[in-house]
Amino acid sequence: MPRSLSFRFPIVSVILGIAVCALFGASSPFAQGEQVFKGQVIECACGGADAHSAMGATGATKMRCPDPCSTTHAKFLLLDSQHNVAFQFNKDDLPKTYANRDVFVIGILETATRTIEVNNVIPEVPPKVKSAKTISIVCDACPRAMAKARGAAFKELAGWGRYTILPEPKNAELIFLVSANPYLGDYITRDGPDKRLVHIDTVYANVVDPQTGQSLWGDRERVGSWFVTSATEDLVRELREITDADVSPVERKALMARNHIFKAINPEK
Q1: pTM surpassing 0.85?
Q2: Helix (H) or strand (E) segment spanning residue 157
C-alpha cells in the first residue's frame, strides 16, 4: 500500500569499523532475523572529488563511506546516530527515494558487512505529528456509507489516547482528514466541502497541518463501501504504529508485521 504523501538531528562522527553498538529493536546490532532499524538515510558520494565523504542533513559532520566505495554511483547508508552506528543497504533503489529523511527500515542484517537486506522502508512521521497535543476529525466527501468513517476514526484516536480530540478544527494542531476522494492539498483554500463526485471505493486518510494545508502523513485502503469502518480504524492504527514505533515494542512489532514484504523464491537457487 502507498506510503506517506508528503515529508535531522546533528550527525555525529561515525567510524564504520565500530563493532559493539546497541541496535534499535534488538539486543545486539548483530541479532539474526528480520528487524526494524531506525535512522536517517544519507548519501555517500562515491566516485566524487571527495569520494569518502557522506552527505547527511545540513550542517552534519561528514563520515567515511564503506569500502570498497563504488566509482560509478552513490551509495546510501542508514545512520543510527542514537547508537552511533551506520549500515549499508543491499540495494539503493528504495533507500534513494528517502535520502536525508528519517525512516524505519524493515530487513535482515548481514553481520559480516553490516549490510541490511531491505524488505521495506517506511518514512518517519514529521516532528509536528509527535509534538501535537490536539487533533480534530474532518470527514470530507463522506456521503452514505462513508458517514461511518468519522465515528470509526474517533473510536481509534480516543483509544490511542495520544491526542485530545477537539470538535472545532480551527482550534486543533492537527486535522485527521478522512474522505472517499484523494486529498488535493487544498484544506485551507477550499471553498466549502469537497464538491467532487464520490464513488465509495477507497478510504483516504491524511493528517493535515491546518496552518499550511500540508499533508504530514497519508495512506488509503481500497475496500469498497462495505468496509469503511474497518478501513478507517486500520488507517488510524497504521498511523499509531509509525508514530509510536520508536517508544513501544508492541507498535514496533505491528509496524514490522504490516510492512513485511515476502521475497519471491528463485527456482535457480
Answers
A1: no
A2: helix 148-160
Q: 242 falls in which pLDDT band (50, 70, 90)?
A: very high
Cis status of the peptide bond prior to 10, with omega within 30 of 0: no
Evaluate the CA torsion angle 50, 53, 54, 57 in order and state its sign: negative
Supply the CATH classification number for the domain 128-245. 3.40.50
DSSP state of 62: P
In degrees and rounded to multiples of 5, residue 13 shows phi and psi of -65, 130
Which residue type does 201 have? Answer: D
Position 17 scores a pLDDT of 33
Write down the pLDDT at residue 15.
31
Domain extents for the chain?
34-123, 128-245
Q: Which residues have a Cβ under 8 Å from the Cβ of 183 and sit 6 or more positions away?
A: 5, 177, 204, 206, 208, 215, 218
Do residues 230 and 223 make contact, with C-beta atoms less than 8 angstroms apart?
A: yes
Taking the C-alpha atoms of residue 65 and residue 88, their distance in angstroms, rounded to an integer, is 9
The per-residue pLDDT for 193 is 75
Is pLDDT of 234 > 90? Answer: yes
The DSSP annotation for 160-197 comes to: H-SSEEPS-GGG-SEEEEEESS---S-TTT--SS--S-
What's the number of CA atoms in the CB half-sphere (13 Å) around residue 238?
23
Look at residue 197 in the predicted model and tell me its pLDDT.
75
Q: What is the pLDDT of residue 225?
A: 82
